[in-house]
Each structure stands twice: as structure tokens, then as C-alpha cells.
């Protein structure tokens, strides 16, 4: 782009300018603003932790594992969250549910929250909506190791953050009826 | 292989012109130009079935779309694979499949390597017009190792066709019609088959998966290592898949290795042995009569100190060494170098002694090679095949597949001499495919072969040039066989003269004749003579040095061949070369920079005898378990008990290791690098798949460390360095590569054999061997290998233990009926050596008068076995017994 650089010819100061300089006019303008704020004082700093800010609806906070309304875990241990995670937060060990042959679940589930970016890709990847992002953010700790969460801790976060639970998948979508079902008449897989 | 050049056809695929041999299918031609046509039911190994309709393509001048998997190419054909019509067809086929296929990819083990998933991503819109409920099959229990989820099935029938065409097991069948077609097995019980895992490997979706690794992994997590299976001499390429340091799955890609992607139960399900909880993880030293954990330093120093003390006090020949042929070539080489150079004795032996040496000695004597002159390709291309005592399905399943391919796909004539009965059974039975089958008593293989040789000579089928070149040989054999009457042979073997005559004509008429000899011959008395006689038969037919003809002894252990080649046996230096071969001795001495010991070697049995007498003071045992393997008559336990130093390098605390002064934990084949040589002589790379379990180390490292402590270091950086040295020691070894051409018959040795070599023992070899009279009972008990177990690892593999975890006595139904024995009942087996009680299993494939007992569970049973030692090859035979049976109520 061609921009012609033109220098403005220097204007000769008028009498008004001279008067403003003499009477500290600009200073007064500034002081006016200061005094107005002084008189109509309204603090904008939140008195955290006594006061809490309203979070936006799509706020992405602490991750949690969810349950169905009958209390069973939603997670089927498919490891897709692990695959989706860009910073290797998640580790899933999948297996067969004890006592429920051919049903898959996550035997162990770990999240290393020290590395989490809160991008939400794991939540997107989850085929059964077993992961949720809560509105919790108060996770400052003295010991980093407390941010290595296991399955029980993640389920507990979910329990306190999502009191309203979904129905089981087969009740929501009858046409996917055949999804991770147990067959009681089969022997358990040996481990 | 046919030598004429095949006719080629030119066609155009998506605008690219390609020339392919006539008869190629369009789908294969497209693959050549890099055009991937989606398919479910097609597989290069199987005959085209064209049932999935996924591979539809447009062919110019044809009114409708054609299935690429069943349309052979034609001259000038123009194929288009990416037009709108074809795309619509793909979409419709997938929509139909997905109308019923459940969307349970997240919990399906195939998710991530599924053909349906890939094609859906590539070809379908994300919506379906179907709103109906999906089909649901009643879930039935299939088997402890194979899991079926029939709702996921796309009915391509690849599994059914694989089971029939390749494996010849026919365990699976489609049941029902249309979308309700379901893959089932026969009978109301769970699946009982060869468990080759082929159906799991070939299923394009997750309908058939491995229950052993179910839900433990996702395909993208797995790290792969291409290595070689250790369970038999076939040397199959396996891909071991691991997650972290955990063994998850084994498979084998189509086209990979000598097995072309086919595996057996041991290869597919046997891999857990390496991660068994019973593995030794620390060195153990005997202190105050007990084996206690020690550090590597303590253990090795103790061994070195004791060994040096004993060497000074006695001589180098107070030492012995015994190694299993399941070790890598590198381990075997360093072992024999340690024994010969650091200790200074030739008293070493390996488990090739148990039988494989019979075959190698006969090959060396007659044709001057220590390897097969044929390869697996020659088996497939053979016109006639003769199997002698192989029980090939259970001992060498993959070589068995090559035989099946030759017979089923290429119409080869199969002649079997087996201690087997043709029967439809849960396992495939090679005798079912035979044109001529000689049901042979295990002690009668020699006589049955004699009958065949006699039929060849009397049927004037002897090669005309041979009669001119080696008249003495032909005349000697003719006169020897004339001295044997047909009546005598018929009476002893139970065969008929007509069958021998017919068979002789079949064998003589074949251009490509391959003879395979199995453990039924090699591990039984007279094995050496029988193999030599079979080679004589090939000579008489004029086929020994013809291309595509030859004899192959099947090795039982994965590296039997390597053990002999590395010189880990009493009678050979690396090469193998005999101990008195001065040029070889000099050559090796220049590489080793040390003179080789001049004392004679000692075989396993000689070492045990020496230990019993007290002249053998120390024994290094690597992976062998003589106390557990040999019958009581061998007096292994007594002999080892008298030793001043017994060092065991083991994976598990075996009976022998429990007696040792020091036990060193060794790595299994999953944890080390190296090479294995399979029975046809292919030297193939073994790659580390997991980290060594506990503190275990590869065997060669222990010998290397010991040699340093003992003052004459054998130092190697890694297994490759050892291989490099092996290549300098054995001329031509480096040229072998992964696919060597088989050696040619050494004409000098052959003519030497034909003029004089044969004469030495011709009289004994060409005489009817009478069955031994033991007075022990009318039944012959054979200790056999089973399909589900091999070697010392398989009984530690949880998958294989689910298939078979105890010994049982297999008996013919007629015998069972005569003795009033029911399947699963108890029976007392006894002879003069002892008695055991075991369970009966009635199997039609067992010939009348024979009994089978799996050698892996022969703990008590082996006391019944007869113990003989081959006078020529020093091979101990202990796989046979004469027993009587009594029902236990």
C-alpha cells in the first residue's frame, strides 16, 4: 500500500492555546475525571474469595467423570480421550467389568491435571459423554502431586458438579440398544 | 515351480495401463497400480466368493457393475473404480451393512484397525435412511480364547472359508439366511478346533476377536516387534504387539515370513509364557542347602571361582555343557565358544540330540549337506509328497499348511506313513488328504519304508542312469531286498503289497517329489537308518538331485538346525564340521586366537554316565531340564546330584534348576535379539519386544561375563557382533540372508556314498527289524507332542493352558469299547516299570493298539517309557512304552 507521508505545516499557537497553558487547563480536565470517580465511587476489584465472579456459560473448568442416573459409570474405557488429548493428560486402563462378562469399562483412569490445557478435546471425543467440564477452578495446591487424579477422585468431582444425571444410553437411544452389554451366562475373562 | 513364462494381459485401470499375468483378478491388478478397491470378502489367500459386493467397479462395455474380486482380467479391459456410479454402489452397500452393524466401535477391539470403519469414513454420508431396530443375535458362549460378537458380522464368510480352505479344519459354518446369517461352530459345546487364530486375523470387522487380549488395548497404543516364534521348527514370523512392557497380542501379516501370515495355536495364543509370574527374576545361589537370592556379581563370581578351582583340581574334561536348541544362534555360538575356549572341553550337547541329529547325520552322510535341499516353496509346488512319521498338524503345523496347500490347491499326490488313522476330528488330519495312507505302528516306519523301496526295485522303477553309474549300490540293495519276502513285510507292518506297488508308481511318476520326515521317525529307535533308507529311495528314483525334489527332516525345536550349525553338539565344530577336520580347526583357531580342544566330545547320555561315575564334576545347563525330561532310567537326578558345580541358566525354576548350585535368570525370546534357524535352514532375525523380566539377561551375556571373570574374555557389544563373528567362522554364512537358496547335493559325497559309503551298514539297514519283545502288554504308548504345547514355555502360557492343562490318554474307540472305557473315565496304565492312573479321551485318529500321551504332562507317566540309546548317533530314545490297560471304576 502506498501511503504518502505528509508533514503537517506547524500551526502558529493561538491566544487560546496560550491561555490554556497558563491556567493548567489540561490538568484541571484530568482532575475533573479523578474527582468525579472520587465522588461516585464504585469498586471493580472483586473481593475474592469473599465475592465470586459470574462464570460464562461455556466455561471450561476442572474435568470430571460422570455417571448415569442409576449410579453406574458412563465411561466404557474406549481410550478415545487419551488419543484426543494433546498434552497426554489422560491414561486409561480398560478391562472387563468384574462380574459382568463382555462389558468394557475403564479399570483405571488417571488425569495429570498439571499438564491440562482445558481445551476440552477429550470431552468432544468421548462417545458416551462420560467426561464433563465442571465450573470448578479452585484447584491451587501446595503439592503438585495432588493434581494427579484417579478415577475415584474424578467421579467424585462429577458427582458434586453434575447432580442431574442422564438416563442410560440404551434408554435414550433405543436403536443403539446393542452397546456394551453384559452377558451373564458367559464366563468371566481370565486376567 | 513351473518354469514357462506366463501369458500376460494388458488392461487399463483408472486410465493407467498395466500388464498382468492372465487369470489375475481385477482387484489384484488394481493393487499393482496402487488403486485400492474396497472389499470385505476377498482375501488373496482364499478363493473369490464375491458375496460382500463392496468391490464393484465399472468395466467398459459391460452393462452392469462387476465385482473386482471375481472378475479375471481380459485383454483391453478398461476398468474405472472411482466414478459416480461406483461411488453410489459403495454407499449403498455400506448403508445396508450399517443398517445392522452396531455402532459400538468404542468398545470393539477392532476399532482403529477395522475395514468397515475405514470404508465408512471414506465412502458414506454420515446419515442412514434406516430407522428400524438393528438385528440382535442371541449371544452364545464360543470359546475361552475366541470371542464372537455376531451383531458386528458383515457376513463375508472369510473365517469360514479360511478354516476350510487353508486350515482344513472346517470348524466354522454359516447358519441362517440373509441378514440373519450367523457364524457358528458345530455341536452344542463350546468351540473345539485347532485355535490357529486365523479367523481372528482374517475377520475384517470385530465379529471375531481374541478373548485373551480382549479390552486390553487399542490398536494405536501398540508397539510392534517382528520376531520369530519359538514353539517349533517352522520358524514363523510373528509380530509381537506390546503396550508399555506388557505383551498384548501376537499376529502375523499376510505375506510375512515363511508362514505367509498363518499361525497355529502356539504361535497365536502362546506368547504369555514370557510374562508368566513364575519367571526367575534374580540369580539364586545355594547357601546351606537352600537356593537364596543373590546379586549378579556374587553369583557370577561364585561360578567363576568354583569353575577355576575345579579346572585346576581336575581337568577341562571334568566339565560338561548342555544347552537347549531354543536359544538363539548367538547364545548357542557363545556357549560352545565358552565351553571350548574358556573351559577347554568338547563335552557339550544340545537338545538337537533328541532327534534332529538323526536327520542331519543322514543328510551329511548321503548328500553332503546339513540342510534341506528343498524349501517350503518346493513343498507347495511338489507333485508328490511323502510324509513319514510327521503327525504334521500337531508338530509342525505351518509346514503342514504347505502340504495342505500342495494337495488342496495344486492337486499334489500325498502319501502318508503315519501312526495316525484318517478321521474327521476337531483337529485337521493330514491323512484325510492322502491318496495313499499307510497306518504305521511307531516301531514299523523302517519296515514300511523297506516295503516301498522293494516295490520301487521290483517294479523296475529304478532310475536308468543310476543303474549304470552305481551298479554296485543298486545290486546290493536289490539283493538285500530280494532276501526279504513280501509276506514277511506284510506280516510285520500290516500293509499290503498292492499298496506299496501303487505308491511306488505314484512316487516314481512325480517330477517333483518331496519327502518330509518327522519326529515319529527321528525320535524313535532306528531313526537314523530310516532317514538314510528314505534318501536311498530318492536316489533309486533318480530324484535326489533333481530340482524341487529332496528330503526334509522336520525339527521339533525352533533352533535345532541352528544348534547343529553353531557346533553346540558333541561331534561338531561350528559349520558344522567334524572335530577331526583340521582345516576347519585351523580356521576357527585363527578367529578365536586360541587352539581348539582335541579331546573327544561327549553327548548328553555320555555326560550323565560320566557324572554318575564321578569323572564329570561340573555341568553348565542352559534352558534344558534333563531331570524333568528324561525317564528315571536315565538316572539324570542321581548324576546331577553328584556334581560339584551345577549352573543352570533358566527362565523358570525347573526340576534341574532346583538341584543347581547357582541358577541364573535368563531372558526369553521376547526379550532378546538374535537369530533362529528354522528346519529348512532360514536364518531369521529375532527382535526384542519387551524389556528383560526382572534382572534376567540373555544367555550369551552371562557366558561373556563369566569368561571375563575367568580370565579369557569373550567380549561382545551386542548380538549383531556375535553374528558377525559367526559369519567369519562359518564360510558362506553371511551370504545366506533371510531367504537363502537351498544347498545343492554335494556330488562328491553322493558318489562316495554310492560307491562305498552305503555298504557299511547296508546289511542292518536293509533287514526287517523285528518288534521288540518286552512282554509288557499289548498296547504301545507313545509320548506325543500335541498341537497346543511345545517346548518348555508353553506350559506357562495362560492361553495354551486354557486349551490343554493336563495329560490324558488318547485311545482308539474300538479299543475303548473293548475295555469298556468311557470318554473322561479313569484308566490304569501299567508295565513292568510302573503304573499310573489317568483320564481317557477317545479319539478316532488314534490307530487301534496305540495310546497317546502328551509329553508335556508326562510327569509321572514318563517312568513307563523305554530307554534306549542309538549306537551310531548317541540319541536317547524314550518316547515309547509297551503297556497294559485296566479300567478304574
UniProtKB/TrEMBL annotation, chain A:
It comes from the Bacteria. It is found in: Cell membrane. The keyword Magnesium does not apply. Keywords: 4Fe-4S, Cell membrane, Iron, Iron-sulfur, Membrane, Metal-binding, NAD, Oxidoreductase, Quinone, Repeat, Translocase, Ubiquinone. One of its GO terms (molecular function) is NADH dehydrogenase (quinone) (non-electrogenic) activity. HAMAP family: NDH1_NuoI. NDH-1 is composed of 14 different subunits. Subunits NuoA, H, J, K, L, M, N constitute the membrane sector of the complex. This is NADH-quinone oxidoreductase subunit I. It comes from Nitrospira defluvii. The gene is nuoI.
TrEMBL record, chain B:
GO terms for molecular function: 2 iron, 2 sulfur cluster binding; 4 iron, 4 sulfur cluster binding; metal ion binding; molybdopterin cofactor binding; NADH dehydrogenase (ubiquinone) activity; NADH dehydrogenase activity; quinone binding. Residues 184-213 form the 4Fe-4S ferredoxin-type domain. It catalyses: a quinone + NADH + 5 H(+)(in) = a quinol + NAD(+) + 4 H(+)(out). Residues 85-124 form the 4Fe-4S His(Cys)3-ligated-type domain. SUPFAM superfamilies: 2Fe-2S ferredoxin-like (SSF54292), 4Fe-4S ferredoxins (SSF54862), ADC-like (SSF50692), Formate dehydrogenase/DMSO reductase, domains 1-3 (SSF53706). The keyword 4Fe-4S applies. Its cofactor is [4Fe-4S] cluster; [2Fe-2S] cluster. The keyword Transit peptide does not apply. Residues 222-278 form the 4Fe-4S Mo/W bis-MGD-type domain. Gene3D superfamilies: 2.40.40.20, 3.10.20.740, 3.30.70.20, 3.40.50.740, ADC-like domains, Dimethylsulfoxide Reductase, domain 2. Binds 1 [2Fe-2S] cluster per subunit. Residues 7-85 form the 2Fe-2S ferredoxin-type domain. One of its GO terms (cellular component) is membrane. One of its GO terms (biological process) is ATP synthesis coupled electron transport. NCBIfam families: NuoG. NDH-1 shuttles electrons from NADH, via FMN and iron-sulfur (Fe-S) centers, to quinones in the respiratory chain. Couples the redox reaction to proton translocation (for every two electrons transferred, four hydrogen ions are translocated across the cytoplasmic membrane), and thus conserves the redox energy in a proton gradient. NDH-1 shuttles electrons from NADH, via FMN and iron-sulfur (Fe-S) centers, to quinones in the respiratory chain. The immediate electron acceptor for the enzyme in this species is believed to be ubiquinone. Couples the redox reaction to proton translocation (for every two electrons transferred, four hydrogen ions are translocated across the cytoplasmic membrane), and thus conserves the redox energy in a proton gradient. PANTHER family: NADH-QUINONE OXIDOREDUCTASE SUBUNIT G (PTHR43105:SF10), RESPIRATORY NITRATE REDUCTASE (PTHR43105). This is NADH-quinone oxidoreductase. It comes from Nitrospira defluvii. The lineage of its organism: Bacteria, Pseudomonadati, Nitrospirota, Nitrospiria, Nitrospirales. The gene is nuoG.
Amino acid at each position: 500500500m502506498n501511503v504518502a507521508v505528509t508533514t503537517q505545516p506547524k500551526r502558529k499557537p493561538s491566544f487560546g492555546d496560550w491561555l490554556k497553558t497558563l491556567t493548567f487547563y489540561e490538568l484541571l480536565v484530568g482532575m475533573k475525571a479523578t474527582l468525579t470517580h472520587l465522588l461516585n465511587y464504585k469498586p471493580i476489584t472483586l473481593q475474592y474469595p469473599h465475592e465470586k465472579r459470574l462464570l460464562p456459560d461455556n466455561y471450561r473448568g476442572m474435568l470430571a467423570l460422570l455417571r448415569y442416573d442409576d449410579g453406574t459409570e458412563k465411561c466404557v474405557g474406549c481410550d478415545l480421550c487419551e488419543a484426543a488429548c494433546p498434552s497426554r493428560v489422560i491414561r486409561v486402563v480398560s478391562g472387563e467389568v468384574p462380574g459382568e462378562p463382555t462389558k468394557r469399562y475403564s479399570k483405571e483412569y488417571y488425569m495429570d491435571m498439571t499438564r491440562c490445557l482445558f481445551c476440552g478435546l477429550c470431552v468432544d471425543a468421548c462417545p458416551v459423554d462420560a467426561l464433563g467440564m465442571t465450573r470448578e477452578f479452585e484447584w491451587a495446591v501446595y503439592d503438585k502431586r495432588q493434581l494427579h487424579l484417579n478415577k475415584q477422585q474424578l467421579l467424585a468431582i462429577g458427582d458434586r458438579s453434575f447432580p442431574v444425571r442422564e438416563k442410560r444410553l440404551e434408554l435414550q437411544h433405543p436403536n443403539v440398544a446393542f452397546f456394551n452389554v453384559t452377558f451373564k451366562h458367559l464366563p468371566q475373562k481370565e486376567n | 515351480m513351473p518354469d514357462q513364462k506366463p501369458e500376460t494381459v494388458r488392461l487399463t485401470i483408472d486410465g493407467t495401463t498395466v500388464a498382468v499375468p492372465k487369470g489375475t483378478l481385477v482387484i489384484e491388478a488394481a493393487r499393482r497400480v496402487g488403486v485400492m478397491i474396497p472389499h470385505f470378502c476377498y482375501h488373496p489367500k482364499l478363493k473369490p466368493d464375491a458375496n460382500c459386493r463392496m468391490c464393484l467397479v465399472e468395466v467398459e462395455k459391460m452393462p452392469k457393475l462387476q465385482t473386482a474380486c471375481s472378475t479375471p482380467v481380459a485383454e483391453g479391459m478398461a476398468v474405472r473404480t472411482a466414478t459416480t456410479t461406483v461411488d453410489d454402489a459403495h454407499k449403498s452397500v455400506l448403508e445396508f451393512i450399517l443398517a445392522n452393524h452396531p455402532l459400538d466401535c468404542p468398545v470393539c477391539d477392532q476399532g482403529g484397525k477395522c475395514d468397515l470403519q475405514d470404508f465408512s469414513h471414506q465412502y458414506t454420508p454420515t446419515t442412514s435412511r434406516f430407522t428400524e431396530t438393528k438385528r440382535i443375535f442371541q449371544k452364545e458362549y464360543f470359546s475361552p480364547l475366541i470371542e464372537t460378537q455376531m451383531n458386528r458380522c458383515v457376513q463375508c464368510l472369510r473365517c469360514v472359508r479360511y478354516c476350510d480352505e487353508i486350515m482344513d479344519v472346517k470348524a466354522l459354518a454359516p447358519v441362517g439366511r440373509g441378514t440373519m446369517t450367523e457364524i457358528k461352530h458345530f455341536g452344542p459345546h463350546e468351540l473345539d478346533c485347532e485355535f490357529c487364530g486365523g479367523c481372528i486375523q482374517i475377520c475384517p470387522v470385530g465379529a471375531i476377536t481374541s478373548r485373551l487380549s480382549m479390552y486390553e488395548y487399542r490398536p494405536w497404543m501398540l508397539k510392534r516387534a517382528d520376531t520369530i516364534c519359538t514353539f517349533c521348527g517352522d520358524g514363523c514370523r510373528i509380530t509381537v504387539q506390546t503396550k508399555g512392557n506388557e505383551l498384548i497380542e501376537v499376529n502375523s501379516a499376510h505375506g510375512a515370513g515363511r508362514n505367509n501370515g498363518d499361525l497355529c495355536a502356539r504361535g497365536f495364543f502362546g506368547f504369555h509364557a514370557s510374562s508368566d509370574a513364575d519367571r526367575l527374576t534374580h540369580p539364586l545361589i545355594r547357601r546351606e542347602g537352600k537356593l537364596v537370592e543373590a546379586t549378579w556379581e556374587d553369583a557370577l563370581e561364585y561360578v567363576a571361582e568354583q569353575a577355576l578351582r575345579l579346572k585346576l583340581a581336575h581337568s577341562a574334561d571334568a566339565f560338561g555343557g548342555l544347552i537347549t536348541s531354543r536359544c538363539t544362534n548367538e547364545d548357542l555360538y557363545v556357549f560352545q565358544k565358552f565351553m571350548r575356549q574358556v573351559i577347554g572341553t568338547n563335552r557339550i550337547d544340545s537338545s538337537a540330540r533328541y532327534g534332529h541329529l538323526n536327520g542331519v547325520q543322514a543328510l551329511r552322510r548321503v548328500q553332503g549337506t546339513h540342510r534341506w535341499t528343498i524349501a517350503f516353496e518346493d513343498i507347495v509346488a511338489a507333485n508328490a509328497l511323502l510324509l513319514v512319521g510327521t503327525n504334521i498338524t500337531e508338530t509342525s503345523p505351518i509346514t503342514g499348511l504347505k502340504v495342505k496347500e500342495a494337495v488342496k490347491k495344486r492337486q499334489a499326490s500325498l502319501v502318508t506313513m503315519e501312526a495316525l488313522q484318517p478321521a474327521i476330528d476337531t483337529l485337521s488330519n493330514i491323512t484325510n488328504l492322502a491318496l495313499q495312507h499307510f497306518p504305521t505302528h511307531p516301531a514299523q516306519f523302517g519296515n514300511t519304508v523297506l516295503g516301498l523301496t522293494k516295490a520301487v526295485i521290483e517294479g523296475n522303477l529304478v532310475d536308468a542312469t543310476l543303474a549304470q553309474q552305481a551298479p554296485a549300490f543298486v545290486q546290493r540293495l536289490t539283493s538285500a531286498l530280494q532276501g526279504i519276502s513280501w509276506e514277511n513285510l506284510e506280516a510285520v507292518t500290516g500293509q499290503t503289497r498292492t499298496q506299496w506297488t501303487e505308491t511306488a508308481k505314484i512316487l516314481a511318476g512325480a517330477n517333483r517329489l518331496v519327502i518330509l520326515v518327522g519326529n515319529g521317525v527321528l525320535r524313535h529307535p532306528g531313526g537314523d537308518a530310516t532317514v538314510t533308507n528314505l534318501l536311498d529311495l530318492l536316489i533309486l528314483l533318480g530324484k535326489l538331485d533333481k530340482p524341487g525334489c529332496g528330503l526334509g527332516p522336520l525339527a521339533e525345536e525352533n533352533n535345532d538346525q541352528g544348534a547343529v550349525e553353531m557346533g553346540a553338539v558333541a561331534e561338531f565344530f561350528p559349520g558344522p564340521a567334524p572335530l577331526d577336520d583340521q582345516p576347519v580347526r585351523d580356521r576357527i583357531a585363527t578367529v578365536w586366537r586360541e587352539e581348539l580342544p582335541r579331546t573327544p566330545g561327549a553327548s548328553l547320555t555320555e555326560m550323565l554316565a560320566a557324572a554318575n561315575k564321578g569323572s564329570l564334576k561340573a555341568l553348565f545347563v542352559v534352558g534344558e531340564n534333563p531331570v524333568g525330561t528324561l525317564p528315571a532310567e536315565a538316572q539324570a537326578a542321581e548324576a546331577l546330584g553328584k556334581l560339584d558345580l551345577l549352573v543352570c541358566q533358566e527362565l523358570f525354576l525347573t526340576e534341574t534348576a532346583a538341584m543347581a548350585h547357582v541358577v541364573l535368570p535368563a531372558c526369553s525370546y521376547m526379550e532378546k535379539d538374535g537369530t533362529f534357524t528354522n528346519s529348512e535352514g532360514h536364518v531369521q532375525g529375532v527382535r526384542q519386544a519387551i524389556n528383560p523380566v526382572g534382572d534376567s539377561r540373555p544367555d550369551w551375556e552371562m557366558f561373556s561375563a563369566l569368561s571375563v571373570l575367568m580370565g579369557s574374555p569373550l567380549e561382545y557389544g551386542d548380538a549383531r557382533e556375535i553374528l558377525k563373528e559367526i559369519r567369519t567362522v562359518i564360510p558362506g554364512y553371511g551370504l545366506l540372508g533371510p531367504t537363502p537358496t537351498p544347498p545343492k547335493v554335494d556330488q562328491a559325497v553322493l558318489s562316495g556314498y554310492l560307491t562305498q559309503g552305503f555298504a557299511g551298514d547296508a546289511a542292518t539297514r536293509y533287514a526287517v527289524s523285528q518288534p521288540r519283545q518286552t512282554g509288557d502288554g499289548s498296547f504301545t504308548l507313545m509320548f506325543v507332542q500335541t498341537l497346543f504345547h511345545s517346548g518348555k514355555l508353553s506350559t506357562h502360557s495362560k492361553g495354551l493352558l486354557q486349551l490343554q492343562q493336563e495329560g490324558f490318554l488318547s485311545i482308539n474307540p474300538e479299543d475303548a469299547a473293548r475295555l469298556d472305557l468311557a470318554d473322561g473315565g479313569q484308566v490304569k496304565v501299567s508295565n513292568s516299570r510302573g503304573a499310573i492312573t489317568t483320564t481317557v479321551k477317545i479319539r478316532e485318529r488314534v490307530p487301534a493298539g496305540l495310546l497317546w500321551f502328551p509329553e508335556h504332562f508326562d510327569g509321572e507317566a514318563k517312568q513307563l517309557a523305554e530307554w534306549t540309546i542309538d549306537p551310531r548317533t548317541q540319541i536317547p530314545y524314550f518316547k515309547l512304552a509297551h503297556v497294559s490297560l485296566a479300567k478304574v471304576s
